[in-house]
Design brief:
Blueprint: H1 4-33, H2 39-60, H3 63-80, H4 88-106, H5 112-129, E1 146-148, E2 151-153, E3 159-160, E4 167-168, E5 170-171, H6 172-229, H7 234-288, E6 290-292, H8 297-311, E7 315-320, E8 325-327, H9 328-349, H10 353-358, E9 365-374, E10 377-384, H11 391-400, H12 406-409, H13 414-419, H14 441-451, E11 455-461, E12 465-473, E13 478-486, E14 489-494, E15 498-505, E16 510-512, E17 515-520, E18 523-529, H15 530-534, E19 544-552, E20 555-561, E21 563-573, E22 585-590, E23 596-600, H16 602-607, E24 637-641, H17 645-657, E25 661-665, H18 668-677, E26 682-686, H19 694-703, E27 712-716, H20 721-729, E28 734-737, H21 743-753
């Protein structure tokens, strides 16, 4: 067993060896490509790193890394002494050795054959060029089971290892937890600001009273003087007492206003101090999470180098902005999209040397990977000087895939054609290779980037090359949003996707090719009803309509809404797996009042809506012969029981947009109280809740003479068969796993049990 101090030492080692491997990869790439200004210095640095890694591996008892590092040290030392050059074949061997160590660090199994073959080739290379080198002790590859620190070599010789938690010196999970706590502090700060606005509303109310009091003050004085000059009867006495009260009341309110003003100043000062501290804390934690972009570059350089060799192409990878820092979570999420784009550039973009020569281009193709901070965004660009995108070929492939019809192909702009390349399954490759040809890469790129609330754009010119730009926000926990109203619900849309907000006369809407359109700055734009998309009843007829213009994929669509509420920065809340696939929903956020609000996915709204089917209702003058719609049937009533406010809000949204009347409860106790006073058509309850869980609530319902016919659907993250059986034994009519939950499935189950 490993003692706690050994564990701490291993954690340090895993971080250290990662840095060593990056230095070795970068150094080899510099020497192989001739980019090293001082090759002897680079070799010396790699020799030093191999020596340090050998010593560190010996200290923690990881013999296999110690052995490989020793071989590397001997080869680098021989190269320094000019005993042999690092030829492409020897570089390949050194990369293989580095990969073996990387596999150990990543916890990936190294098959015995590959491990033994690489070690034998390293040993033979040293014997050929540095015969005086001391041979290291061989690792136990065939001794049954040899324990090396916390590493075990199994009977097959594979390494059974799990490295320390991924982190930037501090484990990422701790930083995530701290970031989450800071988000809660931000919510508390927003609560304080809301209370400050409440106080300001009180002050405005008092100022209104003051204005009205000043308006009747003259009449008050006149009446008081008249009473003083008249004979005092009972009525006069009552009026005099009332006037005295009004005078005293004025002083009371003036004193209250002074206290409110003082409270307002103190609350404002307190909120400013708390806000400054929270912002500073968030900035400090954010900086702790930052890592330089160059920490991933070794892997990208190595990948391009290997792919270029596999395809027989000459390619140079140019790196720009490698010292730019970004959040480690963002960098990890961007790694896969960048790899896809680099792979595409090698396979599709850069031409073979002979083809480039015929076109008058340098035989060595050039790919540039650049990163920069632009305002509140990180922008990553992957450019190549290759063939460029072929719009005609993409159009033909899109027709063959059924994405567009033949009449549409000629009417699409070049930008619209280029945007087709993100559709899954679309490929212009005539064959499937190890690198590409399955039509999945760019769909993954866009999906990953948009999951970070980012966007992808492409520019290309035939014969000159292609540039993909990935833009993602610097901060992922907060989002500037436009809050809007549809029906009786508020929603949020990322402000970055909103290009315009405007009101127009209804008679400005016209029909073109069966679609409702509006002219904005001289350009026709489709108009859709957000009510229809989200399942709300149509907006009330009005001579004026409010439009929100959203942008995605170089397209703009105007959506009719009921009202624009505000623009504000919101604290985002993570969605559970049970609600992450809801159509048109990208997340949830907290308002200053503590209310959870749904954040709509602008990309999904624009892409998945057939423009011709959902539009703003035409002017009333055009509907004279249209019969009035029948009165809607009475809405069925649903009781949602869940201790998660996010889950309650999202389930409520799904069901209300489907036409249900929804009530909510935070646990079984509150639900049981509600059921005693009101009738419902179905209950949807979480299983794991405090006070009274879903199983107990179900048992009570099914044992009650008045409620036993009430359908109950249980939602849970518990997946064991015995847990499912417990729910059904309690009397549940259906049992829905949160891991399989989506909008359609929930509505299907409700329909089945009602």
């Amino acid at each position: 067993m490993t003692s706690p101090s050994d564990t701490d030492l291993l954690n340090i080692f895993w971080v250290e060896v990662g840095d060593y491997l990056q230095t070795l990869n970068n150094g080899l790439l510099q020497i192989e490509t001739g980019a090293a200004e001082n090759e002897a210095a680079v070799l010396g640095e790699m020799n030093r790193v191999a020596h340090s890694m050998k010593g560190a591996a010996r200290a923690v008892g990881i013999g296999i890394i110690e052995t490989i590092a020793h071989y590397l040290e001997e080869i680098f030392g021989a190269a320094i002494n000019d005993r042999f050059p690092l030829t492409p074949n020897i570089c390949d061997l050194l990369y293989d050795a580095i990969d073996l160590i990387q596999n150990v660090v990543n916890g990936v199994e190294n098959p015995t054959e590959a491990l033994a073959s690489t070690l034998a080739r390293l040993e033979q290379t040293i014997a050929n060029h540095a015969p005086e080198a001391r041979k290291p002790a061989k690792p136990a590859l065939d001794s049954g089971r040899a324990t090396i620190g916390t590493i075990e070599l199994g009977e097959t010789g594979t390494l059974l290892l799990r490295p320390a938690e991924d982190g930037v010196r501090v484990p990422v999970s701790k930083l995530d937890r701290l970031s989450g706590e800071i988000s809660e502090l931000l919510v508390t700060k927003m609560h304080g600001e809301e209370r400050q606005r409440d106080i300001q509303r009180l002050q405005k109310l008092h100022h209104r009273w003051q204005r009205e009091w000043r308006g009747v003050r003259t009449a008050y004085i006149r009446l008081a003087r008249r009473l003083q000059n008249q004979t005092r009867d009972e009525t006069a006495a009552d009026l005099s007492a009332l006037l005295d009260f009004l005078e005293t009341n004025q002083h009371y309110l003036a004193e209250a206003n002074r206290h409110i003003a003082q409270l307002a100043r103190e609350v404002a000062q307190y909120n400013a101090q708390v806000g400054a501290l929270v912002e500073q804390l968030q900035d400090d934690v954010g900086r702790m999470r930052l890592v330089p972009f160059e920490s991933s570059l070794g892997g990208f350089q190595r990948m391009v180098r290997d792919l270029a060799r596999d395809t027989g192409k000459n390619i140079y990878l140019d790196l720009v902005g490698s010292t730019v820092e970004l959040d480690k979570t963002t960098l990890d999420a961007l790694r896969e999209p960048i790899m896809h784009l680099l792979r595409n550039a090698v396979d599709h973009g850069i031409e073979p040397a002979a083809e480039r020569a015929r076109q008058g281009k340098p035989e060595t193709g050039r790919i540039q990977l650049a990163v920069e901070q632009r305002g509140k965004e990180i922008v990553v660009r992957v450019s190549d000087d290759g063939r460029g995108l072929d719009a005609e070929r993409i159009g033909r492939a899109a027709q063959a895939a059924g994405l567009i019809g033949a009449p549409d192909a000629g009417s699409l702009s070049e930008e619209e054609v280029f945007n087709l390349i993100y559709h899954p399954g679309l490929t212009t490759s005539e064959s499937v290779t190890r690198l590409s040809g399955r039509g999945m890469g760019l769909d993954i790129v866009r999906t990953r980037v948009e999951s970070l609330r980012g966007r992808v754009s492409v520019q290309s010119a035939p014969g000159q090359g292609t540039t993909f730009s990935l833009s993602v926000p610097l901060v992922l926990s907060r989002l500037s949003c436009v809050v809007l109203q549809v029906g009786d619900q508020d929603f949020a849309v990322p402000a970055a996707r909103v290009s315009r907000m405007l009101k127009i006369r209804r008679d400005q809407v016209f029909t073109a090719e069966g679609r409702d359109m509006v002219q904005i700055h001289g350009q026709p734009m489709p108009v859709l009803s957000l009510h229809a998309l989200l399942g709300f009843p149509p907006a009330a007829p009005s001579d004026e309509i409010t439009l929100l213009v959203l942008t995605a994929d170089e397209r703009q669509i105007a959506f009719q809404i009921d009202a624009l509420q505000s623009e504000q920065e919101l604290v985002l809340k993570p969605l559970g797996r049970e609600v992450e696939n809801i159509r048109y929903v990208s997340g949830a956020a907290l308002l200053g009042s503590g209310e959870v609000i749904i954040v709509l996915d602008a990309n999904d709204l624009i892409r998945s809506t057939p423009v011709s089917t959902l539009a703003v209702a035409p002017p009333a003058a055009n509907n004279k012969d249209t019969p009035a719609p029948a009165a809607p049937p009475a809405r069925q009533r649903v009781l949602i029981v869940d201790d998660s406010i996010t889950t309650r809000t999202l389930e409520k949204h799904i069901l209300e947009t489907a036409g249900f009347e929804v009530s909510v409860a935070i646990d079984g106790v509150e639900a049981w109280t509600i059921l005693a006073d009101r009738t419902f058509d179905i209950v949807i309850a979480d299983v794991e809740m405090p006070n009274m869980d879903g199983l107990e609530l179900t048992r009570r319902i099914k044992n009650d003479g008045h409620l036993r016919q009430l359908p109950v659907v249980l939602l849970t993250s518990l997946s064991k068969p015995e847990q499912r059986e417990a729910g059904l034994r309690a009397g549940a009519d259906a049992y829905l796993m949160k891991s399989q939950f989506d909008q359609a499935e929930l509505l299907r189950v409700i329909q089945a049990v009602m």
